[in-house]
Amino acid sequence: MQANASLPIESIRTPLLTALKQERSFVLEAPTGSGKSTQVPQFLLDSQCIPKDQVIYMLQPRRIAARMLARRIAWERGGKPGEEVGFHVRFDRVASAQTRLMLVTEGILLRKIFADPSLQGVGAILFDEFHERNLYSDLSLAMARQVQHQQRSDLILGVMSATLESDAIRNFLEPCAHLKCEGRTHPVEIHYTAPPNSRPPTPIWESAAQAFRQSVRSGETGNHLIFMPGAMEIHRTIRAIEAMPESKGFELHALHGELPPELQDAAIDPGKRPKVIVSTNVAETSLTIPGITVVIDSGLARIPTYDPRRGVNSLLVQPISQSSASQRAGRAGRDAPGTCIRLWSKSHHHQRPPHETPEILRVDLSETLLMLHASERVAVESFGWFEVPNPEQLQHAQTVLRDLGAISGSLPRITALGQRLAEFPMHPRYARLFIEASQRECLQLAAFTAAMLQDRSILLPLQHRNEMQIRLESLSDEETHDSDVLMELKAFLIAKQANFSTDRCRELGIHVGAARAAVRASEQFLQIADRQGLAIEPLHRSDWFAFRKCLFLAFSDSLARRLDQGTLRCALAHGKKGTRRRESAVDAEWFVSLEMEERQVKGSVQVLLGRNSSVQPEWISQWFPDQIQTCETAYWDPWQKRVRQTRSVQFREIEMESKEIAEIDEEVAANLIAREVIEGRLKLKAWNHRVEAYIERINFVAHHFPEYEIAPITASDRITLLEQVCYGALTEKALQAVEILPTIQEWLRAEQQALMDDCAPEHLETALGKLKVRYESTRAILSARIQQLYDLSPIKIAGRVPVVYEILAPNHRPVQVTDDLDAFWSSSYPAIKKELKGRYPKHEWR
Questions:
Q1: For the stretch 398-428, what's the b/e string if a residue is b when 16 or more beta carbons lie within 10 angstroms of its beta carbon?
Q2: Do the beta carbons of residue 554 and residue 404 sit within 8 Å?
Q3: What is the 3-state secondary structure (H, E, C) of 734-794?
Q4: Distance (Å, rounded) from C-alpha 398 to C-alpha 407?
Q5: Measured between alpha carbons, how far is residue 691 from residues 326, 500, 603 in Å?
Q6: pLDDT at 438 over 50
Q7: Rounded Cα gap, residues 773 and 605, in angstroms
Q8: Which of 516, 67, 451, 32 is nearest to 257 (CA)?
Q9: Quick check: 298 and 228 in contact, CB under 8 A?
Q10: What secondary structure, in 3-state letters, does 461-524 show?
Q11: How far apart (Å, rounded) are the C-alpha atoms in residues 408 and 411?
């Protein structure tokens, strides 16, 4: 078979190949259905741009798309997958020595670049559907660009998508060609089913089934495409539609990445009857499904997001963006005018973000940074990101890796353990858990635990205290004592042994669906462990006590210590604070928390600690002796009103033990007291208005008389002066006896002190007597009643600096501030006189 020459993408064949003679990078914008995914790689295969002995890699964001596109392109070229066209996705590789076009997912390409940074034998890399940006696609593009710049100037890089932020990509790939292709689309009528500002009253799968029923009753007989966030929602939607008489005459198909290939093919291949295809967002842009006339959109997707509760990245169900909704709706207008039914309100649609936040800005980067550290050819500090992550993200990831022992040193470098962790296709925390568990004969427990941590707890929340007691009696024993994690694990194994009997699960308060999902996840984890060569012991031989140590080593960054027995308050690693959940069965002083949830409580953030497991404090010194530090800390005791100093032993800022020191460093104490005074928590009576006035005089002279070389007193200088004043005083009583003004005067040399009365006098001699002057850094303010100013000539301090006049009424309240006395008499005084003369008739008024 031959490629379809009538596809819109054919219009850019010649411009693309011409451009690649000059530039080795290109950006292509072409709508879904234009043929870019199937035809552009063939343009390159059939051109002179790439030598016949080099392979083209085309990156797809999803496994199902990579496999099906390989099948389609191979068919168009008269072959089958594994010959000229192949694919390589997780757990599945179909290729041969003759393969010249390889469709892969991002993780596969990324690991190839790390293994062979020169990409020998690779002629081009095409990034398809790049608008679905994920962490791996961003990283793969950055790595490929680095290879092109540093080693392979002949390497072709192409970024393709239906919708692109093309300016950012063009700037990153510069110099590059920019091409656009117009597609053929038909109008799509949009309907919203939910009332304004309301939430769907029924489960989303029931709403989708009702929308399907209405569509069929209105006369729609074509293929229906229904978008759901995940496999569970897909199968419930299918069951709901199957129960309706309107489903007769339709083939019902699920479509998601976990299905066997033959079921994926059945969903997409043409059938004898119209189809209802219930799919994840894999059908949003990655696959072209012909014949769709109706799209029913739940508006939801499982989106990779950092879950701070468990400290790992998770797929969380969230509303899609407006651009994703547009992509989904467009599926109904591919072959003819169509209809899109959105299961939310129009007002909610306008509240959705225009685009998805790039994954690199919303996920944990620990695994990514570990991969970069593992590549000795990449300088992490100067890595050329396509979009630079937030500094907080990078710092958090570095802290996690350092705590896991994966990196060390002030300029972090990967350790031998870190190199081993990088070999696992999972979060390095789980990799550490598996390695430790394998060495201690408890790997199966690790796999089950990691599986349970992927989602909510399999234990349902209990409403009454007696239910908690029953659960404790059923699950707490020598193996599980003082560990929520091991109790949950015990419940899981009991339910599994009972084949998830409804009665047994109800008795233990177990969520059957969550438990079954954990079984499937644990099998995948064990497969990974087996491929990494880890020893997997029979479950009955698992060492439960040793597994507690594994939890500590893998989650040591989540270590907590109870601050007292009267409350649930805890100190956490790296100076944080938390509160142990009330329902936690752990009563130990030290424990690791595998689930931390942040909540806003009365304007502040509270960290709740759940899924806890006790830790023996001697484990800290056994495995982390180099991270135990001795610190001396001085602090002001507001109750005893004195400085106290303690010497403490700390692990990652958590205090392990502490004792008070009798001899206190006076310099440290002086600095501490000074800051207490500055912050207003401690009053220093002798630091009064006289002291402040003298400081203002010094600053005035420093500003206006630079020839005398007097330094101004800044905010930091005040702390220094306070430290001098407070030196030697350890109690509030001793502090109040200290003289302060002499210390301030010592800021000046003797000859400078003598100049103060001339350059910043406290009083000025006038014909009416002495008038007081106050200073505000750069201003000298003469405060006087109107009557005192009648015959006053303009005054300058030291014959140089004009004073500012604060003019007072007879009651000594200011009526005006001015630096031009003549202007005051001519403009402001008449009105002021009229007002004040009636109130103060006995005073002189000229």
A1: bbbbbbbbbbeeeebebbebbebbbebebbb
A2: yes
A3: HHHCCCCHHHHHCCCCHHHHHHHHHHCCCEEEECCEEEEEEEECCEEEEEEEHHHHCCCCC
A4: 8
A5: 69, 79, 39
A6: yes
A7: 50
A8: 67
A9: yes
A10: CCCCHHHHHHHHHHHCCCCCCCEHHHHHHHHHHHHHHCCCCHHHHHHHCECHHHHHHHHHHHHH
A11: 8
Between vectors from CA 422 to CA 418 and to CA 428, what angle results, nearest 5°? 80
- Joined together, the tokens standing for residue 725 give 């004043």
Tokens of 558: 């989540």
pLDDT band at 130 (very low <50, low <70, confident <90, very high): confident
Measured between alpha carbons, how far apart are the two ends of the chain, in Å?
111
Is the previous residue joined to 412 through a cis bond, with omega within 30 degrees of 0? no
How is residue 82 annotated by DSSP? T
How would you write 197-243 as a 3-class SS string? CCCCCCCHHHHHHHHHHHHHHCCCCCEEEEECCCHHHHHHHHHHHHC
Per-residue tokens: 131: 């608008």
- Segment 529-551, tens digit of pLDDT: 999 999 998 888 889 999 999 99
In the predicted structure, residue 568 carries a pLDDT above the cut 60 = yes
Whether the pLDDT of residue 2 is over 60: the answer is: no
Quick one: which of 725, 729, 761 has its CA closest to 742?
725
> Where do the H-state alpha helices sit in 364-478?
366-374, 391-403, 416-422, 428-439, 443-452, 465-475
252 Rama class: left (phi>0) / alpha (psi -120 to 50) / beta: beta
| Residue 641, pLDDT above cutoff 90 | no
- Its sign, for the CA torsion 8, 129, 264, 82, is positive
Average pLDDT, the chain: 87
Strand, helix or coil at 362? coil
Return the sign of the alpha-carbon dihedral for residues 636, 640, 644, 646.
Answer: negative
CB 280 within 8 A of CB 257: yes
- CA distance linking residue 345 with residue 349, whole number of Å: 6
Contacts 24+ apart (CB under 8 A), 288-292: 288/32, 288/33, 288/334, 289/223, 289/225, 289/331, 290/223, 290/334, 290/335, 291/222, 291/223, 291/335, 292/222, 292/223, 292/224, 292/225, 292/331, 292/332, 292/334, 292/335, 292/338
The sheet with strand 642-651 has its strands ordered as: 628-637, 642-651, 654-660
In angstroms, the CA 185 to CA 332 distance is: 9
Please tell me the predicted confidence (pLDDT) of residue 3: 47
For 331, 664, 713, 728, the CA distances from 683, given in Å and listed in that order, are 72, 22, 20, 17
Residue 679 contacts residue 730 (beta carbons within 8 Å): no
Rounded Cα distance between 256 and 263, Å, is: 10
Dist CA 493 CA 495 (whole Å): 5
Radius of gyration for the chain, computed over Cα atoms and rounded to the nearest angstrom: 37
Task: Name the token pair of 802.
Answer: 């004009």
pLDDT, tens digit, 9 for 90 and up, residues 597-613: 877 666 667 888 989 99
Question: What's the rounded Cα separation, in Å, for the pair 363 and 586?
Answer: 30
Average the pLDDT over 273-286 and give the result: 85
Q: Are 608 and 558 in contact (CB under 8 A)?
A: no
Length of the chain: 846
The per-residue pLDDT for range 385-429, each reduced to its tens digit, is: 888 888 888 888 999 999 999 999 888 889 999 999 999 988 999
The closest of 179, 126, 180 to 155, measured between CA atoms, is 126
- Bridge-based pairing state of the strands 275-279 and 223-227: parallel
Instruction: Please state, in angstroms and as integers, the Cα–Cα distance from residue 313 to each residue in 135, 522, 696, 798, following that order.
Output: 11, 17, 57, 70
- 337, 292 in Cβ contact below 8 A? no
User: Distance between alpha carbon 335 and the CA centroid of its chain, in Å?
Assistant: 41
**pLDDT the model gives residue 18:** 93
pLDDT (0 to 100) of residue 1: 40
CB-based contact 256:280 (threshold 8 Å): yes
DSSP string, 159-188: EEESS--HHHHHHHH-S-EEEE-------E
Is the predicted pLDDT of residue 590 greater than 60, yes or no?
Answer: yes
